[in-house]
Amino acid sequence: MMHTVTIPPDAQIAPLLRGYTIAVAARRRQTIVATVIVIGCFWLASIGAEVNPQQFWSKIGNFTSYFGRLLHLDNDAYVWTDPAEWFWGLAKWSRLLGETILIAYVGTITGAVLAFFGCFVSTRNMMRNAFPRMVMRRSLEICRTVPDIVFALIFVVAFGLGALPGVLAIAIHTTGALGKLFAEVVENIDMKPVEGIAATGGSWFAQVRFGAVPQVLSNFASYSLLRFEVNVRGAAVIGIVGAGGIGQEFIVAIRQFHYSDVSAILVMIIVCVMLIDGFSERVRHRLLSGGEH
Fold first, then answer.
1. What pLDDT is attached to residue 81?
2. I want to staple 238 with a disulfide (CB 3.0 to 4.6 A). Which of 2, 194, 243, 254 is the partner?
3. 37 to each of 42, 44, 186, how far by Cα in Å?
4. d(C-alpha 269, C-alpha 62), whole Å
5. Do residues 260 and 79 make contact, with C-beta atoms less than 8 angstroms apart?
């Protein structure tokens, strides 16, 4: 079946083309101005941060050569030519890596529980009283603003070396991060079930338990799993300051210039994080799809 298209006369098309040309020119000018502003801000920020491109290019060889040394054993052979020598400390490193995962796990669970109880107080739709809402929001901001490695340093001084400072640091930072994410989920729930429970005389806890929690539980679990992935990496880093796990062994290998040990530990951490990422991603998708159904 054929369709005929009627082409309007040139006199009618000309004003439309002029308007289109003007709009395109204005959009291009806006793009050019925005690009110039971004480049200018980047240049000013580089000056303020004392970024020296010349130094970067002159020293980049040290960066690449360091990675070259990571691929060689003490006898100058490539690391993959002798896996037994490369992973000579596999048993010890595996135990420390397991400790890192446990630190991240306990810290994530603790932070998720605290964030769960705090997020409902920090939302406008669930907490009408402004004072407790403000206190909880500021508390969560403090928890997520201070880096976890700073918390780890404080707790190492207070409690000594070991896993406890790492768990506490991960838990506090996780509380702030998940508290923010949980609160955003709660603020977007359907308020009809909550209002229905309130209309029947239900308490605030009943409104949260039966009106809000069933709507947000799958999202909470998904965000907690995502945070666990992040915390595994964080637990490996805070171990550098003595908060337990593989990080302490990693920094010792770096300071003693045991390059093959550094690369072996890096490979173990990368493989571990990849496995956890893949597993938790599948679980998150199942949780979210189940929540939709």
1. 87
2. 243
3. 8, 10, 37
4. 24
5. yes
How many whole angstroms separate alpha carbon 188 and alpha carbon 185?
A: 5
Closest CA to 182 of 136, 223, 140: 223
Cα–Cα dist 112/118, whole Å: 10
Closest C-alpha to 108, from 183, 180, 170: 170
What residue has token string 């709660």? Answer: 186
**Contacts (Cβ under 8 Å, ≥6 apart) of 210:** 193, 197, 202
| Tokens matching residue 181 | 């994410």
Residue 58's identity, in one-letter code, is S
Report the pLDDT value the prediction gives residue 244, as an integer from 0 to 100.
79
Please give the DSSP secondary-structure letter assigned to residue 78: B
Query: pLDDT under 70 in the chain at which residues?
Result: 1-8, 10, 288-293
DSSP state of 243: S
Which residue carries 């500021």 as its tokens?
138
Q: Can you give the length of the chain in residues?
A: 293
